[in-house]
Amino acid sequence: MKELGVPLRDYLDKFPNKKYLHPNEQSLIELTLGDGIYEEVLGRLNALKNKVNSVGEEHASLCAKGIKRLEDFFKSEGKAVDDMLNIAKTLRAIPVVDLESPTLCLVGAPNVGKASLVRILSSRKPEICNYSFTTRGIRMGHIHLNYQHFQ
């Protein structure tokens, strides 16, 4: 159960004992959270860590069986995780449009210089080719003009 116990311990170690803090920091914690809340939550978290470690020690063989079952689940259904990672990657590639900012759209016939104009006017550096239909998706650029932002 070290997979749970160690992160809990590491997380708990990031919170200092209040008695080692400067009196100003102690007062700030008490006024923000309430008297004794900080120590109570740290104590509960420490108790949870101790219980996790205890259960891990007592049930190590059962944990091995449980881990084996989890491995079997991931072997049969793990493709869903890979699929979700691919979906996340695809979604991150979609340009984010600020709906509050003015948006300019540049459209026109092939080979008339749209990409060259975008390259000159905005932060976007589009691909310029000698063939038609170089647009393969939405390309966002940004223009700052007279303290106003356009996309």
Q: What topology does this entry show?
A:
Blueprint: H1 2-13, H2 23-33, H3 37-58, H4 60-77, H5 79-93, H6 114-121, E1 143-145, E2 148-150
Antiparallel strand pairs: 1-2
Helix pairs in contact: 1-3
Element order: H for helix, E for strand: HHHHHHEE
Number of strands: 2
Strand coverage percent: under 5%
Strand order of the largest sheet: 1-2
**Inertia-based shape:** flat
- Biggest sheet: strands, sense, closure? 2 strands, antiparallel
Distance between the termini: 50 Å
Radius of gyration: 28 Å
Structural class: mainly alpha
Mean pLDDT: 78
The number of distinct structural domains comes to: 2
Number of helices: 6
What does this structure look like?
With 151 residues, the protein is mainly alpha-helical. The protein folds into two domains: 2-93, no CATH class; 97-151, no CATH class. It contains six helices and two strands. The protein has helices at 2-13, 23-33, 37-58, 60-77, 79-93, 114-121, and strands at 143-145, 148-150. It has a two-stranded antiparallel sheet. 1% of the residues are buried. The model has no long low-confidence stretch (mean pLDDT 78). Residues 104-149 form the G domain. One of its GO terms (molecular function) is GTP binding.
